[in-house]
Structure formats: C-alpha cells, structure tokens
Design brief:
Helix content is 28%, strand content 24%. By secondary structure, it is α+β, with helices and mostly antiparallel strands.
C-alpha cells in the first residue's frame, strides 16, 4: 500500500477524492521512474504492474478508490429483516465487462484492435485483461514497448498516448450505523464467492482469523470445481496452483459505529493501516487506512 502523502492532505485541508487521486498518480510516477532507471539492466520490469484498491475512513466518511479488478464489498445490517446485506462499492476495470470495452473504444476511437477476443477472453491489445493499473509501463509509454523487452509484450505498431490508465474510480459516501464491515479482496476471491456469500461468512464467524476463513472458503470452491479435495489442492506447488486458482488477497475491516459517528474524535492521523500485495501474475493488491474513526 502506498501511504497517502501527508502533504497532499495538508495542501487540500483534509482528506478528499482529489487527495487519493494524487496519491495514485504519485505512486504511478514513482514506479515509472524506477522502470526508467532500471530499463537497461532489468527491461522486464516494464511489464510489471498491479491493481490497486484503497479504502480510507475519515470523519465518518468512506472513500473507496479502485484501479484494476479488485473489489470492496460492504456488509450492511438490514434492521427490518435482521440480516446482513452485501453492497458492492467498487466495480472492476476488466475488459470482460462491456462498459469497460466501450470506455476503451471511446478513448481510442482510431484503434479497432484496442480490445481483442483471444482464447474466449477479452484482452486490451490482446495482452492484458485490466484497463487500469499501477505500472505496466509497456502499455503506457512507447519508449518501454521495444527491445530488449520480451517479444510477447511488444506491440507491432507504436502508440502516442497511454493504452492503460492509472487514475482510479473513486466513491465517497457517509458511513451509517448499519454499516458493519468492509471486505477488500482481489479478483481471486470473487471468482469463487459471491458478494453475499462472502458477507454471510464474515457475519456468521468470529472476527479473529476471518480473512483466512474467506480465503479457505474460496479455495474449497476452487477445489470443488476441479473435483478434488481442499487438502490435495493445498499440496500443489504454488507455481503450478496458478492454473487452479488466481492469486487471492483479502482484508476485512470492521466498522465501529460509535467511533465512526463521532466526527469530532481527535485521534492519531492514521491509527489503522493495512496493506497487501500478491505475486504470480503481478496484478493484485489492496490497502486500507483509517484516521481513528474505525
């Protein structure tokens, strides 16, 4: 997780969508600068990228920012039926989604091959499923889409503007007492669990170790789809297991409505921090932070 720079919050007089957007762009620029420095010695770093999902709770307001195909789901108490409802707070930037393909076509009207159906999967330029990320310099700056980068990443024609975006989509909403918890997870979890299934697991189990319980539930589903046992799936080498299920990263953040509602609370600027990254396909990661109101 890239910590939101304190100077951004200071110059904007507090937290805002603009502060988070600046933090994403600053992270992107720092990474592209690293790619440039190491280009001659480690050119393949130009093909490295990550999704980024961030949550910030500040003075009773929730900010969700997403670039890539991770997702955050809110567990909200429905008092009338005394049950927990799943509310999805982000949407994925994945070429498999029609609206994402439409956005890509509108941004690149002169490129009929901006999205290509390859092996029954929609991919940007036939290479990558996500349309937004941190990194992936080879699809953002033409100077990195050439030798000595591996041929499989190089495009046959040059491009004059970034193919992928690093700007996140941002949601801002006030938290209410019914909002119980947030589940931040990479797409590996959501491939095997629905939003409501994940929320039901968190609601019905003890808090301690709940993220690991979600992970196990997803892996059990992955094993079931392959007609094998969970214990057998766990024995498979990590490198090979990538063919059985995607990388999975999970953070669960429980919301204390008493603290969230106390906007005058004066605690440390950042009292809760979480961050994670995944390896394998290099396209996952999420983070969450709070200001003492969580």
């Amino acid at each position: 997780m890239h910590r939101v720079p304190l100077e951004f919050t200071s110059e904007n007089n507090g937290m805002s969508a603009n502060v988070i957007n600046k933090a994403f762009l600053a992270t992107e620029e720092e990474f592209l600068s690293l790619v440039k420095k190491q280009w001659l010695n480690k050119p393949q770093i130009a093909s490295v990228g990550a999704c980024c999902l961030v949550g910030v709770v500040c003075s009773g307001v929730l900010y969700i920012a997403n670039a890539g195909d991770s997702r955050v789901v809110l567990g909200r108490l429905e008092r009338a039926i005394k049950d927990i409802k799943a509310v999805q707070l982000s949407y994925e930037h994945n070429a498999s989604i029609e609206s994402v393909r439409e956005e890509l076509h509108s941004l690149h009207p002169d490129d009929p091959h901006i999205v290509v159906l390859k092996h029954k999967v929609w991919r940007v330029k036939g290479l990558i499923q996500i349309s937004r990320s941190i990194g992936d310099a080879y699809l953002k700056r033409a100077e990195f889409n050439r030798e000595p980068l591996l041929a499989k990443f190089r495009l046959p024609e040059p491009f004059d503007k970034p193919i992928l975006k690093s700007e996140p989509t941002i949601l801002v909403q006030k938290l209410c007492p019914e909002d119980q918890f947030l589940i931040f997870a990479s797409d590996g979890l959501w491939e095997h669990l629905s939003n409501q299934e994940a929320v039901d697991i968190v609601h019905s189990c003890p808090r301690n170790g709940i993220a690991r319980k979600l992970l196990k539930a997803a892996l059990c589903e992955a094993a079931k789809k392959r007609e094998m046992r969970y214990s057998d799936l766990k024995k498979i080498d990590r490198g090979v297991r990538r063919h059985f299920h995607d990388d999975i990263t999970v953070i669960v953040l429980f919301l204390d409505s008493n603290l969230v509602s106390r906007s005058s609370f004066r605690g440390p600027l950042i009292s809760i921090k979480g961050g994670c990254g995944v390896s394998g396909n290099g396209k996952g990661g999420c983070g969450v932070s709070g200001n003492g109101n969580t």
